[in-house]
Design a protein that fits this description.
Layout (H helix, E strand, L loop, with lengths): L2 E4 L6 H12 L2 E4 H11 L2 H12 L5 H18 L2 E4 L5 H13 L6 E6 L2 H15 L6 H15 L3 H5 L4 E5 L4 H13 L4
Parallel strand pairs: 1-3, 1-4, 2-3, 4-5
Helix pairs in contact: 2-3, 4-5
Bound molecules: adenosine monophosphate.
Length: 190
């Protein structure tokens, strides 16, 4: 199964993706993790994107699409991918569909984690204190939330029109969100 975990920054996508990897052997494809790894490695790409991540803006579609494309064979071997933080623009969503189609595959399900903005702000304050992830500072977080609302949320109708979108309340405990996600993954699809 190819699954997109969809939602604003700090909605819990990464936490739930890691759980699905541990429990179901799926592969997590997180463009944010890939970009942070590039920055940590000091590569040219890392140097190119470091300031963009720090500000909270989106990196170019070309960069993230190429990163995902490179990892698709690995996900295919594992029997499915969890796309976490990708796609974030309509161009990315269309490129993903085309790449999967070229491999005889498709997106099966898009799970939207719904969390209200104030809860996100509270979560991020806690995470910043714990991990000091540079783009969790309040200013960058505002930019990230703005990017989500302006560029990523408009993808919802794209998946809704394809009958792939399921909404899950992301405000509960990690366990209750996990249960809701598992329910959505096993429910019969049209
Ligand atoms: P994330 O860990 O998913 O919150 O991503 C952290 C940052 O990486 C984002 O704020 C963007 O700067 C960048 N990023 C991650 N995924 C994408 C994407 N699909 N498109 C553009 N930028 C991305």
């Amino acid at each position: 199964m190819n699954l997109i975990l969809f939602g604003p920054p700090a909605a819990g996508k990464g936490t739930q993706a890691k759980r699905l990897v541990a429990e179901k052997g799926m592969v997590q494809l997180s463009t944010g993790d890939m970009l942070r790894a590039a920055i940590a490695s000091g590569s040219d790409l890392g140097k190119q994107v470091e300031g963009i991540l720090q500000r909270g803006d989106l990196v170019s579609d070309e960069i993230v699409i190429a990163m995902i494309e490179e990892r698709l064979p690995e996900a295919e071997k594992a029997g499915g991918a969890i796309f976490d933080g990708f796609p974030r623009t309509l161009a990315q969503a269309k490129a993903l569909d085309a790449m999967l189609e070229g491999r005889g595959a498709k997106i099966d399900l898009v799970i939207r984690l719904k969390v209200d903005d104030q809860a996100l702000m509270d979560r991020i304050a806690g995470r910043y204190a714990e991990t000091a992830r540079p783009d969790d500072n309040p200013e960058s977080f505002k930019v990230r939330l703005g990017a989500y609302n302006d560029q990523t949320a408009p993808l919802l109708p794209y998946y809704q029109d394809q009958n792939k979108l399921v909404e899950v309340d992301g405000m509960g405990s990690i366990e209750s969100v996990a249960q809701a996600i598992d329910g959505a993954m096993t429910a019969p699809r049209p």
